[in-house]
Amino acid sequence: MYISLTHLYRNFALRHHWQNLNLDQLVKRIIPAIVIMSIAYTILTLLKLYAFKVMFSPGFSESLFSFMMRWMDVFIAGIRIMSIWLLAYHLYQYARREIRVTKENAQLAIMTREAQLSNLSAQINPHFLFNSLNTIKALVIDQPGSARRGIDLLSELLRNALYNSGAVLIPLKSEMDLVHDYLELEKLRMEERLTFEIEMDSLLEEQLIPRFSIQSLVENAIKHGVSLQKPGGCVQIDISRLGDKIRICVQNPGMIDLNTPTTGIGLKNLQERLRLEYHGAASFDICRKSGGKVWATLLIPMP
């Protein structure tokens, strides 16, 4: 009987979307609902008690009307019971709504982050392609043989890039294959002026890192370091484990003005991708070292 009363209220509230109302709107509806439900509770309770008296109390002769005059105590009890039930019901509905909204917001945040990461990764490909084409262009007239080799290397670079085009993170080994081809392509242009050394912990080969992350550092090292030195120089890449992170260090000869903010597309793009992917757990730093060296260091968390 009482379950039917609360069930009727539940259906009414759901039909009129009371679960989506703000607090002020809900209170204006709950107070009259408590009164109405308490009246219904009082009537049902008194009728039930009167029926029990008639059936189980021999000699009971009080009229229904006079019996119903005792409504005040039952009504007050009804106010208490219905207030507690309605409060519990709407707190439950509120909690469900908050959980649903939190889940939806989390899903939207994930979708937004993935879209941002995809867009940032997509920006890298044309930037990378134009730089590689400029390198080959410089070789065509003076060194046609090297230009042909450059085209082969670019084809391999593009094949790797397109193969992983949908991936935000790729294995470290795949990134280093791309970096090696890129260095070979740049070496065709710069010849003896560019040398490179790579040291990598083989146990880290399958660890996932942002696509084009090391390539961006190497490109920056050549463009703003080695190519500006008359004798050229060596790009050194050292990849090792540091605690629970992968430490990627790219060194090159040259100078850097630490008071000038990073303006290159590749590095700005990399910093933004690290922020979105790792939420502050990854870091990027570029600094001067003794001996005319510039060090760019990435620290990427391992899963």
UniProtKB/TrEMBL annotation:
The chain crosses the membrane at residues 30-51, 71-92. SUPFAM superfamilies: ATPase domain of HSP90 chaperone/DNA topoisomerase II/histidine kinase. The keyword Signal does not apply. Residues 115-194 form the Signal transduction histidine kinase internal region domain. One of its GO terms (cellular component) is membrane. The keyword Flavoprotein does not apply. GO terms for molecular function: phosphorelay sensor kinase activity. Keywords: Kinase, Membrane, Transferase, Transmembrane, Transmembrane helix. PANTHER family: SENSOR HISTIDINE KINASE YPDA. This is Histidine kinase. It comes from Pedobacter metabolipauper.
